[in-house]
Design goal:
Layout: H1 3-12, H2 14-21, H3 24-32, H4 43-50, H5 58-64, H6 70-76, H7 99-114, H8 163-167, E1 171-176, E2 179-185, H9 198-217, E3 221-232, E4 240-250, E5 254-262, E6 268-280
Antiparallel strand pairs: 1-2, 2-4, 3-6, 4-5, 5-6
Length: 282
Amino acid sequence: MDLSTARRIGAAVNGLYSAVFFAREVAAELAAVGVTSPTPPGPGYFALRAAPMGAVGPGVVTATFHSFSPAAVAAAVPAVWSAARDGLDAGDVPGAPDVPGGARRTVAHRADRDHDRPPPQGSPPMNTESPVSPVPADAAAGPAAEGSPYGTPVMPGLGPDQDLVTRMGIRILEATPQRLVATMPVDGNRQPYGLLHGGASAVLAETLGSVGAALHAGEGRIAVGIELNATHHRSATSGLVTGTATPLQLGRTLASYEIVITDEQDRRVCTARLSCLIRDAG
């Protein structure tokens, strides 16, 4: 599989990723079993990512997800596996009767809708325990139905109200304070000569850096961009461009990120740097 195909597949499944990791409903389900902080770098986030592998230790998690901070993972795993309250019964979990099939079908439905594809017709049930679980009525409502790339987000800064981000087709594929990845289509973001607009690259860069700074800042604090510079190395005329942000410095009051934007042939299109001021909310 070539790099271009792999990136297109990653962009196509991003709706599923977003619905799982940034949905308020998922945060509520986790809280019901005693797991908090479902957004990175909280223990709930690492639990969600690692759960398919079982109750593994921090070494397995960091080896599998190479962008995760080993220190952050070690602080959450394996302690998170014993976080559920003693005596918890499945019936205590919100929507428990529908969890076997309904929750997963809801996520799949949102992912399909987010990419303008209807849910498959006549698909077999996802398991035998809940063969006729309907997609909940509210699954068709809310930000995802309006085209948000984030589902229903938990954290301010990953919100459905970011009209510009949605309009430009930016989709966040990976988001931790240590590494963020997003794609953006060239189509719809061109300048008069048919090339990717430099301002579009700047929006992609500031989006990634701002989200990274907000994740680093944590709850009760906000990150505000104060300086952005960008160097445009080459043009892009079609397909997707991919932005990857990594921190240059993460402090208590200032966070700086380098953002590298590449085309589908992995050629560097733009290099940007963003600095954000971190302060208390309110």
